[in-house]
Amino acid sequence: MAIAWSETAASMEALSLSPPMSPPVILTQDELKKIAAYKAVEFVESGMVLGLGTGSTAKHAVDRIGELLRQGKLSNIVGIPTSKKTQEQAVSLGIPLSDLDNYPTIDLAIDGADEVDPHLNLVKGRGGSLLREKMVEGACKKFVCIVDESKLVKHLGGSGLALPVEIVPFCWKFTANKLQKLFQGSDCVAKLRNDGEGKPFVTDNGNYIVDLYLKKEMGDLQVASDAILRIAGVVEHGMFLDMATTVIVAGAELGFR
Ligand SMILES: O=C[C@H](O)[C@H](O)[C@H](O)COP(=O)(O)O
């Protein structure tokens, strides 16, 4: 039983949790997320301005930063949250917060992802926070992405799950149809995300999310990104191309070497 993590797709390191002959330890997906998160927090130094990610993996990193602050092992940290939820979590942990207006350059951001391809391109936003995440992580000197191994895909969209696009609510069907048509070559189905109670899901920015389900590869990702952003009504999409500087992957096998 071992845990592996990678700093880049090309250079990967592994950490053995137990000697080869010891009995196997079964870790849950959440424990793997926590291991990746704690590893990422090792990059944090006192005095840093930190982008605080959103989601079940990033939550562990924010908890850990709060813990290290409480213990006096970190000091003089300023957090820039990527969602209202993370803002609430950070406030409850006593992490001092600010925003991009006051700190246009961020030292380090730590955040999860929904998909990671072999070139460290990401899909994010299945929790609905993609716009603020892209703004904050786009302003970072270093963006450490933390995932468990279930997030690794051969190509973006490869999980068969959603590629989220944040759109304005005005005439959302018009925008959703345009998005579906744009990717008709990938057999795309565009669905408005709902809140689980029959109403549209509303982002922290008051917008809607259209989830794109793609059956085939998108082709050139930068071309696809530009085409999405050219549709009037689109605010931002969940492809994070060339943004992660490090991806930490926690997995149950020593299969990365
Ligand atoms: O909008 C949500 C964010 O992009 C999350 O970072 C992403 O969905 C991964 O979340 P989780 O760590 O819960 O899988």
From TrEMBL:
It comes from the Eukaryota. It holds the Pfam family Rib_5-P_isom_A. CDD domains: RPI_A. Its EC number is 5.3.1.6. It is an enzyme of class 5 (isomerase). One of its GO terms (cellular component) is cytoplasm. One of its GO terms (molecular function) is ribose-5-phosphate isomerase activity. Pathway: Carbohydrate degradation; pentose phosphate pathway; D-ribose 5-phosphate from D-ribulose 5-phosphate (non-oxidative stage): step 1/1. This is ribose-5-phosphate isomerase. It comes from Gossypium hirsutum (Upland cotton). The gene is LOC107934514.
